[in-house]
Structure formats: C-alpha cells, structure tokens
Specification:
The complex is a heterodimer of chains A (about 110) and B (about 120). Chain A has no helices and eleven strands. By secondary structure, chain A is mainly beta. Classes of the chains: A mainly beta (about 110), B mainly beta (about 120).
Chain lengths: ~110, ~120
C-alpha cells in the first residue's frame, strides 16, 4: 500500500466532453505527478505540481491541466476529450525526490 | 533526450527457474534507475532503485538489479520465479530537469510463469 488513492476507478466519456480525475496522497508528499499509460505502453509523464504550482510538463497539450491543493489532494482535468485520450491515468506523489509512490490509476475510456 | 529500452515484450519462465529482464537506458549524466511491477488493472509498485554506490541493488520480493555503466544497462534478476511474479515489469530512468523530476519509462516486459 502506497497511501495514494485515485478516483474514480473507471470512467466512460464521450468525445468532446471534459473530465476531472482525482488523487489523494499521504501527508508530507508535496509533489504530485500525473502519467498517462496507453494500452500496451509504459507511462508517459504529463506534468508535475509542487506547492500548488505546475513546475514541469511533458509533451501534452494545454487541454491537459491540473490543480494541487494544500491538503495533498490533486486533480487532472482534460478538456475536449479525444479518442486517443483513452488510457490509464496514474498519479504519483513524493517529497521532491525520485521516490515516487503511485496510485492504482483511473481507467478512462473515450467513445 | 532520455530513453529506456526493454527489448523483450514477453518472456515466459517456468516456475522455480531464474529470471533476467533486460533494460538499457540513454541518459547523459549519472542516471537514477528504477524497476516497477504492475499487476493487471493495478498501479505501479516500486521493486528497487539505484541512485549511487553499490551497483548491485536488492529490492523487494527477492529481486535484484545490477547497474552497468559501460553497457548502459540495469537488468532485473530473480533466482527463482514464483507464479505470483507474473505481471508487467517496467524499467525507468529519473530525469532531472530544471525544478522538477520526471520518470521516463520503457514499454515494459510481460512476464508469464508456466507451471
């Protein structure tokens, strides 16, 4: 158990819609990173938040955005959903080090 | 740019046999290296990590990995595989960028364990 939880477990959305995924970590983990894992692939880095500010982003468009809250929870928002956004979304939390603890993920299906 | 290659997509090992999963990385500086395991429908569990020091690192569940700088490799090994080890294994390199860190993953190796 990593102490990192994600909700919901599964989600089905229609192309063009917007979605919000949630992550909650344990106390002391002041960074949160989000990764997208397409079927049969390794996770791809979306962005990282530290002290409620985005401090790094991978190769993802601006319609992927996030929030980090003082209570160690965070959100990933995706606007204008596309079919290729169907994936497992993983959050990982840590304390500004390479020790990152992953949640179980949210499986998003876009139809 | 940093990258990780896991050349084996699938590996089948008999229960009780030894296991070696290959990982090669590309990174300009001293890498931070990781192995994660993912069971079906689950998140990632850290098996072991290399930051510095002894190049043979021990992890959980009886796994170990050896960092070889000359070969840019970080192969995962286990002397005797159990049926419960069947899962997807990911090698990753930690990439230090200005102000943030990210993990760059390989495409994974699926381990099948036969009776």
């Amino acid at each position: 158990e990593t102490g990192v939880t994600q909700s919901p477990t599964h989600l089905i959305k229609t192309r063009g819609q917007q979605v919000t995924l949630r992550c909650s970590s344990q106390s002391g983990h002041n960074t949160v990173s989000w990764y997208q894992q397409a079927l049969g692939q390794g996770p791809q880095f979306i962005f990282q938040y530290y002290r409620e500010e985005e401090n790094g982003r991978g190769n993802f468009p601006p319609r992927f955005s996030g929030l980090q809250f003082p209570n160690y929870s965070s959100e990933l928002n995706v606007n204008a959903l596309e079919l290729d956004d169907s994936a497992l979304y993983l959050c990982a939390t840590g304390a500004l080090s390479y020790e990152q603890y992953f949640g179980p993920g949210t499986r998003l299906t876009v139809t | 740019a940093q990258s990780v290659t896991q050349p084996d997509i699938h590996i089948t090992v008999s229960e009780g046999a030894s296991l070696e999963l290959r990982c090669n990385y590309s990174y300009g500086a001293t890498p931070y290296l990781f192995w994660y395991v993912q069971s079906p429908g689950q998140g990632l569990q850290l098996l072991l990590k290399y930051f510095s020091g002894d190049t043979l690192v021990q992890g959980i569940k009886g796994f170990e990995a050896e960092f070889k700088r000359s070969q840019s490799s970080f192969n995962l090994r286990k002397p005797s595989v159990h049926w419960s080890d069947a899962a997807e294994y990911f090698c990753a390199v930690g990439s230090m960028n200005t102000g943030f860190q990210k993990l760059v993953f390989g495409t994974g190796t699926r381990l099948l364990v036969s009776p």
